[in-house]
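Assess this today:

___
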Amino acid sequence: INVFSDGFFSVRIAIREMDFIKARDVDETANLIWNDSAVQHEKIAELRNYQRINHFPGMGEICRKDCLARNMSKMIKCQPQEYSFIPKTWIFPAEYTQFQNYVKELRRKRKQKTFIVKPANGAMGHGISLIRNCEKLPAQEHFIVQEYLDKPFLMEGYKFDLRIYILVTSCDPLRIFLYNDGLVRMGTEKYHSPNEANLSQLYMHLTNYSVNKHNENFERDETMDKGSKRSISWFTEFLRINDYDVAKFWGDISELVVKTLIVAEPHVLHAYRMCRPGQPPGSDSVCFEVLGFDIILDRKLKPWLLEVQIGIDMCLFIRTRYLFLIFSFDFYSLGL
């Protein structure tokens, strides 16, 4: 395995656990190449058939916030019932006028909503804000504006989201695996519906670990059932104990994942075939990808997709189980 460009310590733990041999940095013949950033198409084209690399070309079509919004918008127009798990979203500056028309219509109906503003290609909660006074939004800035889900499912009075881990092993055909555990990431201030007075209280409204870890209320706990970061296996048991339909919960999650990756598949398949021309359908893929789906639940337990993470911090994943599960494919197949 060549991990020259990887900065995640958890990958190195997996190497040791799986008895992999760490290749020299200049060795281009390693069985497995692990990068913590996007891979050049030329690199994928040069791989030998026995080699594997941890990124697909074209996956940015769902992993950049603006690309995800653009591609989902197309699907919503033709299949609105099937793609109802995305909050209303606008891409600025291109959709500034559509957004302002939507706000005017709300005002005409005497309704007021809260919106969340995100940098188009931001990460770790940087640059995110909540607004209600939409007239102040600059028309020429590049960011995403999304309806804020103000009625979330709460845990002990706190807002939270789920980090679901997905493994894609092939794009031709599309093969997806769903890891049956993951992370529950909780806010660190008790939740109250947004109003003019609390819009800036990001520890209450945002569930990003990178934001909440700076709050004095953040609880670090190495167990999976306590603290500000918990396991989805614990959450699944919580649902079962409280008589929620666990099978439906996982079914809804699986459906959301499959439909999202269907959006990416044409882009990934085209880019992969450009890199690996002449390979027949069904041949072994030299690429695989681990994705983090960030999902929030509303009070009816319906999952809503917030974003898809690429190059995710595997140190978060290591808390649920060692990374070698990826290599041994200890994931639940979604049956594609």
Notes: The two ends are 29 Å apart (CA to CA). The first helix runs from residue 9 to 17. The longest strand covers residues 174-186.
